[in-house]
Structures are given as structure tokens and as C-alpha cells.
């Protein structure tokens, strides 16, 4: 019985731990190489500027800002502060963020700030914000870039991804893709 | 829209679970079936390589085989983790894991818990992700499926309880591997990486350098859910955009982890030759699940009152620790499912849930039978069903019978041990942790929530769930040893006790059904079953819940 157990465990190790993942990697790399390698985005010169699926930190007022990330969107790791709803540090962070957001966006009223913009995402790498969170930054970016706000609103609309199959999940805007398109805007 | 997307997922689940239940009953049949022709070749090859003979086992032989194979698996896992630094398949240059953390990790994945005291990005080489994590992610749910099949054969009085090796192999070849291959490819098509290339480096638009960890993610994420395992490739599990990039993958992952637990009661109905019996068990679990789900959803949509007071509108709900692509509905549903199926994968941070939202995963893990993990959840609810028959029998003065077989002192003693072990291994270590410096040092959130963090860690370990209130600083000798032991007890006490019950019931002569028989396939029994679970399972935990999440809720309101 002992020998049978050991032999079976090793056979299953080879099937599940080696053959299966390697076969899957092979098929995925042949059939869908870009997605299987992490959906990387490259610029005109072929340099990697990021991944479509991974958030980046933007602090320049000329760009759309993403969500709070306690790990500064460093995708070598992932995570957040895990603040409980009753944690005083969460309240302090939020109050400080509200104050600096209002300072950078003087036209915005406090109660209109969308909640996703000033909360830490679960992964610390959330690439998306809600369409409302993008729209509320339009005035700031339009004035910094001397652009027509209507043009920016159209850009946001073009970059809004709907719910999957019209039902699942929430409408959202990919911040990195939006900012890449923003730089192309004349 | 929220109601629609939540109910659509549940309807999809039901549509998939009905044929899957029939398939499972067929796939593990003791008689020859047509499936033997499809899978027979591969299975014969595995039997031959391992020297397996397809003879029937007694419950003791079955239990010994479960334990010995599990010891072999954990030994392989431990050795690989200790040696990962010098083995190939390590392009990012990860060092060996230290002994206590290796012990905790090997035990955690062996017991289908997948509690993680490391972060996958920096703690594991690609080879370890494959040959330790993915390997155990197949073998441990397969063990659970084997055990539930043996248990159900005993209860339904079949020829024997079966052969563990045959069941274990069939769970791989007929269920887990084919499903995992399909789900892996669907995930890659949505953007989940599957590569052996090391961490990528990007120069961001702001000019900074960004490291992007990746790897053979999809092949792990698929079996993570199908096997109700729950340990993520990355630290933040399925809230990481690489593990769960779109709402569509979120739905796929939820269906994957709920499919087998939801179809097992239906398989039970087929094996008992009374489909209604299967649906009564399913109905009891389903009703409890809906209560938990509603609580989580309502609590999260109401948001965090403390942030509302700080001036941040909570109109769309509590978004701290959640991802925009999922929003409240897909996050609350995921939380309710992952702790019902005791998977333990998370798509939002449970530590940041509102107090009553956080009570839901805790409660589901405390009951440990709201569908439950692959195999073991069904074993648990059937255990409660026998207990319900016994209590009802005492109340009305009838001899307790389940499916025509008498329930007697021996079975009840074994069930009592299994039922009492669960609160004992949660509450005793929680008390010890809260009373000592070693335990309280890890708490990261002040106040009542700190109690919840400790309670959650042990509940998750005992229920073999593996999710966490992740703020807890848990990679210390105290937490690695204590949760390691709790996970072992949580898994094997009930497995062995229930195999013994199956072995004890199997040889009993069926008693003919009379007017005086308490029927177990009607709605009266459904209510009795839920009441038993709530009274026996939940009341034990009420005091500690009052100290943790309920107290936090009262202070926040």
C-alpha cells in the first residue's frame, strides 16, 4: 500500500504539476501569444510602456488620475493596507485625499467625488476608474491642456467599456489607455 | 441591473449543476459504464504505472489509503518548497522557503485550505507554482471527491464503499483535468497570462520603472476554482487584474468553484435513487446561501458610514478594497460564493468589508456546510442531515432512520465528535491568540475589528477555506504552527469520522418504510435540517461574533 501510494503520488505529480501546465503554456503561447504574455503595451519604438491590465500611477494634473494604491502600482507585488471600515487611518487618508483633490480640481464639489477615485483598490493595481471618476477630472485637464472639454468627454465616452455581455460587472474606463489617447489628441 | 446579474449567475449555475450531478454519479459508479471506454485507456495507464488493483476496500483500508497518500503528497510538496532556490524553473531567482512557512504552505494546500502566509510573486518559483501548488490543487479536491463518493455509497447501501485509488484517479481524469483545460483556455482568451517568461519591466508614461510579475497564471487560476482551492498565483488572489481581468472571468471563476459542490447533492439523489432527496439537501443549502448573499450585498451597497461622515459620498457603496470592474454586485456575490464553497479565493479584500459584510464569510465558514468545498461540504451537510433525523426521532419517539437504515449510538458518537471538533478548533486557538502577545502582535486594525481578524484566520483554517482578513501579520512562527495544526484537524477529523460512519451504516439491513417512518425527502425535513444547522452550528459562535463584527457594526452605525 505504501509503495502504491508513493507511485501514484509521483504519477499524478508528473501529470498535474508538469504535463498539464506546460501543455497549457504551449497552447496559449501559440494561439494567443500577446494575451498569454501579459497584454503588454509597446510604444512606437517597441519599448514596453506597461500592461493593458495593470494600473499606473499618474500625479501630473495634465493626465487622468487612477485609484489610490498603497503600493504605488508596483506590480512586482500586489495588495493594499487592508484598512477595516472602522480604522482611523482610513478616515485620515480619505480626508487628506479629499482636500488635495478639491485643491487640484477647484470646480468640483466635495459630495460629487466618485467613491472609487479616493478608495484603495483591492489589488493596488486596478487599471480602471468609473466613467464618473473620469468625467469629474475633465475641467482640470481641459484647462491645463487648453482643450475643449467637450472633446475630452467624447474621448472618455469612446474609452468607456460597457458591462460584459451587457449585464455583468460595471462600466469602466482604462486609465492608461485613456491617457495614451489623450496625448494623441490635438 | 445588480439583481439581474446576480440572479443570472445563479440560474446559470443551476442549469450546469443538474447534468453535472448526473455525470458525477455516473463517473464514479461501481458498475461498468460507457465512460470507461472514453477514459479507460488513460486510467489503465495510470493504474499500471502505480501498481493499482481495482478491488473493493473496507472503510478502514479506505481511510488508511487516504492518509498515506496525503502524507506522500505533503512530503513531496515540502521537499520541493525547501529546494526551490536550486531547482530549475525559477527565472525570477526566488530563494528557498523557510522551514515553518514551508510546513504551513504544504499543509495549507494539502488540506484544500490554501491559506497563504507568503505572497506568490516573491515567495514561489514557477516550478513551485506548478509542482507544489497546481499539483496539490488537483489532488486535494480529488481526495475530497473520493471521500464523499465513499460516504454516499455507504449511506445509500451500495456493494461497497469503493476503492480509494480508483476514485482518486477518476476525479482527475473524468472531472478535474478536462474542466481545468477548458477553463484555462477561456481565461487566457480574456487576458490571464500563461507564460514561462520572467517578470516584465516597463517604463511608464510618467517615466518611472514598473515591474510586472507574471507566469503560468491561467493554469493555476482554473484549478484554483474548480478544486475549491483558493490560493492565488499573486498575493491578492482573484482581485489581481492578471487573475481576474474582466467581469466575464469573474462569472467564470464563480461558476467554476460552485459547480462541483452544487452538483454533489444532485449526484447524491441519483445514487440514493431518490432525486427528491438530493433536491431537499440542495434546497437547504441554497436557502442558507441566499440569506448570506443578501446580507453581504445590502451591507456593502450601504457603504461605510465612517467615510460618509468624513465627506466621501457612499452612493454606490463601499469601494475600499474592491475593483471598479466588479463593483458591489460582483464583489458581494463572489464573497458569498467563495466562503460558501470554502474556496477562499477573493476578488475583493475581506478585511475591508463593512462589518456585516464581513460577518457573511465568517458565518458561512462557521457553518461549513452551505454547499462547502469539493466533497467535504456535502459530507458535512449529510452529517447534519443524520443529526436532524436523530433529533427529530427523539422528539417524536421514533427510531431514527436515514434512507431506510437505522441510525444508532455508534454513528451518533462519531458525528458528535466531528460536529464538536469544528467550534473547538476555532474558539480555543482564538482565545489563546487573543490572550497572548504572540497572537495579538499580528493584529493590524484597532478595536473590535482586531478580534475579527484573529477569529477569521482560525475559522478560515478550520473550515479549510483559506481566505483571510489579510491585514493580519501572519507569517510568524505562532501563526504558521497554530493555523497549520488547525487545518490538519479541520480536514482529517471529519474525513475519518465520516468514513467510519459510512462503514458502519453500509452493512445494516434496510428497514421497510412504514407510516411511522420520518420522511427525509419533503419540505418538513428541509426546515428541520436548516434548523439543526442553525441551532447546532451557529449558536456556538454567537458570543464571539458579538465581540467582533457585531460590536464593530454597532460602533460604526
Task: Give a count of the beta strands of chain B, DSSP E runs of length 2 or more.
Answer: 4
Our estimate of the beta-strand percent of chain A is 5-15%
* SSE order of chain B, one letter for each helix or strand: HHHHHHHEEHHHHHHHEEHHHHHH
Q: State the total count of DSSP E strands of chain A.
A: 5
**Uncertain spans of chain B, ≥5 residues at pLDDT below 50?**
none
Describe the structure.
The complex is a heterodimer of chains A (186) and B (557). Chain A has seven helices and five strands. With 186 residues, chain A is mainly alpha-helical. Chain A has a three-stranded antiparallel sheet with strand order 3-5-4. Chain A is extended and about 75 Å long. The model of chain A has no long low-confidence stretch (mean pLDDT 96). Chain B has 557 residues and is mainly alpha-helical. Chain B has 20 helices and four strands. Chain B has a two-stranded antiparallel ribbon with strand order 1-2. Chain B has a two-stranded antiparallel sheet with strand order 3-4. In chain B, strand 1 and strand 2 form a beta hairpin. In chain B, helix 1 runs parallel beside helix 12 and helix 10 packs across helix 19. Classes of the chains: A mainly alpha (186), B mainly alpha (557). Chains A and B meet through helix 1, strand 2, helix 3, strand 3 and helix 7 of A and helix 1, helix 2, helix 3, helix 6 and helix 7 of B.
Amino acid at each position: 500500500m505504501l509503495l502504491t501510494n508513493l507511485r501514484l503520488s509521483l504519477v499524478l505529480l508528473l501529470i498535474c504539476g508538469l504535463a498539464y501546465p506546460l501543455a497549457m503554456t504551449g497552447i496559449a503561447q501559440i494561439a494567443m501569444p500577446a494575451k498569454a504574455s501579459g497584454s503588454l503595451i509597446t510604444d512606437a519604438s517597441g519599448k514596453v510602456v506597461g500592461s493593458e491590465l495593470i494600473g499606473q500611477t499618474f500625479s501630473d494634473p495634465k493626465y487622468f488620475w487612477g485609484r489610490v494604491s498603497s503600493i504605488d502600482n508596483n506590480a512586482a507585488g500586489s495588495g493594499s493596507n487592508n484598512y477595516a471600515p472602522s480604522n482611523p487611518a482610513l478616515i485620515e487618508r480619505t480626508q487628506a485625499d479629499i482636500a488635495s483633490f478639491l485643491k487640484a480640481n477647484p470646480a468640483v464639489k466635495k459630495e460629487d467625488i466618485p467613491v472609487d477615485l479616493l478608495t484603495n483598490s483591492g489589488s493596488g493595481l486596478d487599471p480602471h476608474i468609473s466613467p464618473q471618476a473620469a468625467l469629474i477630472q475633465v475641467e482640470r485637464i481641459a484647462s491645463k491642456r487648453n482643450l475643449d472639454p467637450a472633446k475630452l468627454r467624447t474621448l472618455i465616452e469612446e474609452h468607456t467599456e460597457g458591462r460584459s455581455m451587457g449585464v455583468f460587472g460595471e462600466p469602466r474606463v482604462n486609465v492608461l489607455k485613456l491617457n495614451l489617447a489623450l496625448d494623441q489628441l490635438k | 441591473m445588480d439583481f439581474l446579474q446576480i440572479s443570472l449567475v445563479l440560474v446559470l449555475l443551476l442549469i450546469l449543476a443538474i447534468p453535472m450531478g448526473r455525470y458525477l454519479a455516473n463517473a464514479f459508479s461501481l458498475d461498468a459504464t460507457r465512460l470507461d471506454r472514453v477514459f479507460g485507456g488513460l486510467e489503465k495507464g495510470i493504474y499500471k504505472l502505480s501498481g493499482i488493483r481495482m478491488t473493493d476496500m473496507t472503510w478502514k483500508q479506505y481511510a488508511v489509503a487516504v492518509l498515506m497518500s496525503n502524507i506522500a503528497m505533503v512530503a513531496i510538496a515540502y521537499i520541493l518548497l525547501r529546494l526551490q532556490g536550486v531547482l530549475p524553473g525559477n527565472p525570477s531567482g526566488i530563494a528557498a522557503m523557510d522551514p515553518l512557512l514551508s510546513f504551513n504552505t504544504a499543509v495549507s494546500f494539502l488540506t484544500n485550505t490554501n491559506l497563504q502566509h507568503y505572497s506568490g510573486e516573491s515567495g514561489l518559483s514557477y516550478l513551485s507554482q506548478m509542482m507544489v501548488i497546481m499539483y496539490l490543487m488537483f489532488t486535494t479536491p480529488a481526495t475530497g471527491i473520493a471521500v464523499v463518493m465513499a460516504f454516499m455509497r455507504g449511506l445509500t447501501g451500495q456493494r461497497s464503499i469503493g476503492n480509494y485509488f480508483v476514485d482518486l484517479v477518476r476525479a482527475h481524469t473524468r472531472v478535474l483535468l478536462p474542466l481545468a483545460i477548458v477553463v484555462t483556455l477561456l481565461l487566457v482568451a480574456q487576458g490571464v497570462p500563461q507564460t514561462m517568461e520572467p517578470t516584465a519591466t516597463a517604463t511608464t508614461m510618467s517615466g518611472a520603472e514598473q515591474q510586472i510579475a507574471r507566469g503560468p497564471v491561467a493554469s493555476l487560476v482554473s484549478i484554483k476554482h474548480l478544486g475549491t482551492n483558493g490560493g492565488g498565483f499573486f498575493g491578492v488572489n482573484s482581485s489581481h487584474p492578471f487573475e481576474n481581468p474582466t467581469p466575464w472571468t469573474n462569472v467564470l471563476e464563480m461558476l467554476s468553484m460552485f459547480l462541483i459542490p452544487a452538483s454533489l447533492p444532485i449526484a447524491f439523489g441519483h445514487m440514493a435513487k431518490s432525486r427528491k432527496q438530493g433536491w431537499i439537501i440542495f434546497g437547504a443549502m441554497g436557502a442558507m446561501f441566499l440569506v448570506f448573499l443578501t446580507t453581504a450585498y445590502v451591507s456593502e451597497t450601504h457603504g461605510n458610514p465612517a467615510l460618509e461622515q468624513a465627506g466621501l459620498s457612499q452612493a454606490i457603496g463601499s469601494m475600499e478594497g474592491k475593483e471598479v470592474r466588479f463593483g458591489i454586485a460582483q464583489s458581494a456575490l463572489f464573497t458569498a460564493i467563495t466562503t460558501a464553497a470554502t474556496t477562499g479565493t477573493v476578488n475583493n479584500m475581506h478585511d475591508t468589508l463593512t462589518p456585516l459584510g464581513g460577518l457573511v464569510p465568517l458565518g458561512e465558514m462557521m457553518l461549513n456546510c452551505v454547499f462547502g468545498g469539493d466533497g467535504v461540504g456535502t459530507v458535512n451537510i449529510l452529517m447534519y442531515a443524520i443529526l436532524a433525523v436523530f433529533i427529530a426521532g427523539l422528539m417524536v419517539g421514533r427510531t431514527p432512520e436515514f434512507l431506510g437504515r437505522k441510525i444508532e449510538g455508534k454513528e451518533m458518537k462519531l458525528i458528535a465528535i466531528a460536529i464538536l471538533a469544528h467550534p473547538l478548533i476555532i474558539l480555543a486557538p482564538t482565545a489563546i491568540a487573543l490572550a497572548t502577545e504572540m497572537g495579538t502582535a499580528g493584529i493590524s486594525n484597532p478595536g473590535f475589528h482586531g478580534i475579527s481578524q484573529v477569529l477569521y484566520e482560525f475559522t478560515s483554517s478550520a473550515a479549510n477555506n483559506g481566505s483571510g482578513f489579510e491585514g493580519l501579520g501572519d507569517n510568524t512562527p505562532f501563526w504558521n504552527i497554530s493555523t497549520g495544526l488547525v487545518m490538519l484537524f479541520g480536514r482529517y477529523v471529519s474525513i475519518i469520522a465520516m468514513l467510519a460512519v459510512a462503514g458502519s451504516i453500509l452493512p445494516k439491513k434496510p428497514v421497510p418504510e412504514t407510516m411511522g417512518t420520518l420522511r427525509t425527502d419533503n419540505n418538513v425535513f428541509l426546515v428541520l435540517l436548516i434548523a439543526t444547522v442553525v441551532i447546532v452550528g451557529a449558536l456556538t459562535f454567537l458570543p464571539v461574533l458579538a465581540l467582533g463584527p457585531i460590536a464593530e457594526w454597532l460602533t460604526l452605525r
